[in-house]
């Protein structure tokens, strides 16, 4: 009599265990994607600071060019987007505008000949995390990176053979 009441119990246990296993598995995968995006954001700010330290500091075009060179790192996992602090709830693509990248030159008001340091940081970059049926928005930290000035000039060319400018 006891065997008849136990019929199907293994199938139910397997089904519940199977669902729990896949739920945990996808949580681990999403956590890995989030850590990859966080690492890519740190690398993007480091690269932006390095570009800014060798290029001229005088134009918005230069900032846009640097943002376009490092945006691919932020779009690596497909989770990052720009949330404008002046327009809450509005999401935009990172390539639409370079406002997410902040470049600061020190001392304040310096020119290309006397700047000593450059700081790059992120602003308004969020990640869209998806777990099971829940979507969460998580703001990335600013990741400020400060580097010493190397040679702010428009004459920095890479590679020198074809005059393809490195900074623009």
Q: What's this model, at a glance?
A:
With 168 residues, this protein is α+β, with helices and mostly antiparallel strands.
Describe it for me?
The chain is built from 3 helices and 7 strands. The protein has one domain. Helix 2 (9-54) packs antiparallel against helix 3. 39% of the residues lie in helices and 21% in strands. It is of the alpha+beta class and 168 residues long. Residues 157-164 have low confidence and may be disordered.
Domains counted in the coordinates: how many? 1
What low-confidence regions span 5 or more consecutive residues with pLDDT below 50? 157-164
Global mean pLDDT: 81
Tally the helices: 3
Tell me, what's the shape?
elongated
Quote the beta fraction.
15-25%
Biggest beta-sheet profile: 4 strands, antiparallel
Helix fraction?
25-40%
Please write the string of helix (H) and strand (E) elements: HHHEEEEEEE
Major sheet: arrangement of strands: 2-1-5-6
């Amino acid at each position: 009599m006891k065997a008849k009441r136990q019929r199907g119990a293994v199938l139910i246990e397997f089904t519940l265990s199977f669902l729990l296993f896949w739920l945990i598995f996808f949580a681990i995968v999403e956590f890995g994607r989030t850590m990859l995006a966080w690492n890519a954001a740190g690398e993007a700010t480091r690269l932006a600071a390095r570009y800014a330290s060798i290029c001229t500091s005088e134009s918005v075009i230069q900032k846009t060019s640097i943002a376009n060179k490092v945006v691919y790192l932020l779009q690596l996992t497909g989770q990052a987007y720009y949330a404008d602090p002046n327009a809450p709830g509005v999401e935009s693509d990172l390539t639409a505008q370079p406002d997410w990248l902040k470049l600061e030159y020190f001392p304040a008001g310096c020119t290309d000949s006397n700047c000593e340091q450059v700081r790059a940081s992120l602003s308004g970059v969020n990640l869209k995390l998806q777990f099971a049926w829940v979507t969460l928005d998580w703001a990335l930290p600013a990741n400020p990176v400060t580097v010493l000035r190397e040679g702010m000039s428009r004459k920095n060319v890479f590679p020198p053979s074809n005059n393809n400018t490195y900074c623009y």
